[in-house]
C-alpha cells in the first residue's frame, strides 16, 4: 500500500506542477498568455498525469481487493515485482495516451484569436480553436476516454463490489470495521477523482457554463491532488500516531522553555 501511495504522491506533485505555476504567474500579468510550445507541453504533462492516475487508482483497487478477498495469497499476488509492473504499466498507459493526443494536436492548424477562456491548455479546448479537420482527434479522444478513463473506473467499481460483498460476510462487527478501514481512504480518493473527472469531461454541452467549467477544473486539477494526502493521513493509524508523538514532543519542549 505504501509503495502505491508514494507513487500517487509523486504523481500528484507532477500533476499540480503542470498547471498551478502558470496560473499563479498569470494572476500578476495584465496580459495572460502562454506560448504555443508551452501550451503543448502543458497538454502533454497534464494528460500524462491524468491518465496515469486513472490507471494507478485502478491498480490500487486491485491491491485492496487482494488484501481483503485473497489475504492468504497476498504476498504472492502482490509481490514487489507485480507492484513495480503495475506502477510502470500505469505510467506507460499515461505516456502513450498523452503522446498520441499531443502529436495529433500538434498537427492542427489554429485560426482566429487563439484565445482560451480557461486557466490551462487541454485537448478539447485546442480542438475548438482549430480550423483543420478534427474528426480523427475527436475519435481518438473518445477511444481514450473509454480505455483510460471509463475502463479503470469500471474496474475499480467491480473491485469494490467484490470487496464490499466480502466484508459483509465477515461475522463480527469489529472485523467488518477493520476490513473496511483498510480501503476507506482509497475509496474516498476514487470517488472524488473520478467524480470530478467525469463531470469535467463527460457532461453534456447543453447548459454549458464557463464559470462552472473553470470551478470543476480547479477541483479536478488542484483541489483533488491536494486532498489525497490529507485523506490518507486522516485515515491512517500510523500517520496519526506519529502526529500525536510529534505534538507531544512539542508540548513537552514548550513546557520546559516556559
From TrEMBL:
Annotated compartments: Cell membrane
Membrane listed as a keyword: yes
Gene Ontology CC annotations of this record: plasma membrane
Membrane topology: Multi-pass membrane protein
Residue intervals passing through the bilayer: 43-62, 74-92, 143-167, 179-199, 214-234
Pfam families to which the protein is assigned, alphabetical: 7tm_4
This protein's record includes keyword Transmembrane: yes
Residue ranges of every copy of the G-protein coupled receptors family 1 profile domain listed in the record: 1-232
GO molecular function, one term: G protein-coupled receptor activity
Lineage: Eukaryota, Metazoa, Chordata, Craniata, Vertebrata
Major localisation: membrane
Keywords annotated in UniProt: Cell membrane, G-protein coupled receptor, Membrane, Olfaction, Receptor, Sensory transduction, Transducer, Transmembrane, Transmembrane helix
Name of protein: Olfactory receptor
Family (UniProt): Belongs to the G-protein coupled receptor 1 family.
Amino acid at each position: 500500500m505504501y509503495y502505491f501511495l508514494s507513487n500517487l504522491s509523486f504523481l500528484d506533485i507532477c500533476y499540480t506542477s503542470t498547471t498551478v505555476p502558470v496560473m499563479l504567474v498569470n494572476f500578476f500579468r495584465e496580459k495572460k498568455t502562454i506560448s504555443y510550445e508551452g501550451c503543448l507541453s502543458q497538454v502533454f504533462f497534464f494528460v500524462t498525469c491524468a491518465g496515469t492516475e486513472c490507471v494507478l487508482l485502478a491498480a490500487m483497487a486491485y491491491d485492496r481487493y487482494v488484501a481483503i478477498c485473497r489475504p492468504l495469497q497476498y504476498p504472492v499476488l502482490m509481490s514487489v515485482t507485480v507492484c513495480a509492473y503495475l506502477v510502470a504499466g500505469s505510467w506507460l498507459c499515461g505516456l502513450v495516451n498523452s503522446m498520441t493526443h499531443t502529436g495529433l494536436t500538434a498537427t492542427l492548424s489554429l485560426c482566429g484569436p487563439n484565445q482560451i477562456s480557461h486557466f490551462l491548455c487541454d485537448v478539447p479546448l485546442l480542438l475548438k480553436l482549430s480550423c483543420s479537420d478534427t474528426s480523427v482527434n475527436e475519435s481518438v479522444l473518445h477511444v481514450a476516454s473509454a480505455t483510460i478513463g471509463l475502463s479503470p473506473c469500471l474496474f475499480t467499481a467491480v473491485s469494490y463490489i467484490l470487496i464490499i460483498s466480502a466484508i459483509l460476510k465477515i461475522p463480527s462487527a469489529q472485523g467488518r470495521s477493520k476490513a473496511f478501514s483498510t480501503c476507506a481512504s482509497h475509496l474516498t480518493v476514487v470517488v472524488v477523482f473520478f467524480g470530478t473527472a467525469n463531470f469535467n469531461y463527460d457532461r453534456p454541452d447543453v447548459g454549458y457554463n464557463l464559470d462552472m467549467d473553470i470551478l470543476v477544473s480547479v477541483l479536478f486539477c488542484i483541489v483533488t491532488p491536494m486532498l489525497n494526502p490529507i485523506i490518507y493521513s486522516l485515515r491512517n493509524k500510523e500517520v496519526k500516531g506519529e502526529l500525536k508523538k510529534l505534538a507531544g514532543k512539542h508540548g513537552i519542549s514548550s513546557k520546559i522553555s516556559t
